[in-house]
Design goal:
Length: about 180
């Protein structure tokens, strides 16, 4: 199962941090007993912060990573290929989604706005922060990203995710053609 878990606080002494770690440990242990896992989607925190959180504080084989390269580009302005190499021991799923970073943003405000349905209100105040694009038209270097996945031995799904756009069906068909070409 994959999901966003909210934003892991940067301050490891924040009470929310320890509550998140404890609850995820419990969920992870339950999932592991069932032969399953809960995969945290990348984006709200830096790849290093997510790795540290999983390895140092959650400490459960039932917690994994759903790599979303577009979220890393759009919100963190991070390199998805480098994130693959860093999080390689935890990746169980990946999205095929693209986007561009426009300006630095506060991930907590962004993900709170998404959760509450108010991203348009947030960007009305801040200006456009990032933009999801059709696959292959954003900031993800797909050749490097796919190569990094190959290098770590990932052979799972690349699930096309398209959350916006005027014609998502056309964008998904474009994504299929794009992936077929580069794979």
């Amino acid at each position: 199962m994959t999901t966003h878990i909210g934003v892991v606080p940067e301050d490891i002494f924040d009470s929310i941090y320890s509550i998140m770690a404890e609850r995820l440990h419990d969920v992870g242990e339950y999932a592991a007993r069932l032969g399953a896992c809960l995969a945290i989607e990348t984006g709200p925190e830096s790849p290093q912060a997510l790795k540290d959180f999983i390895e140092k504080d959650v400490c459960s084989k039932g917690i994994a990573v759903n790599m979303d390269p577009a979220n890393l580009v759009m919100v963190q302005n991070a390199d998805p290929a480098a994130a693959v190499r860093l999080l390689q021991d935890h990746i169980v799923h990946t999205h095929a989604k693209d986007g561009i970073h426009i300006q630095k943003c506060d991930p907590e405000k962004v993900y709170t706005a998404f959760a509450e349905g108010g991203i348009k209100e947030l960007t009305a105040k801040t200006g456009e922060l990032f933009k999801e694009t059709p696959l292959g038209q954003g900031g993800v270097n797909w050749q490097e990203y796919i190569q990094a996945l190959r290098d770590i031995g990932y052979n799972g799904f690349l699930t096309i995710e398209r959350e916006v756009g005027e014609n998502p069906i056309d964008d998904i068909n474009l994504a299929i053609r794009f992936l077929n070409k580069i794979l």
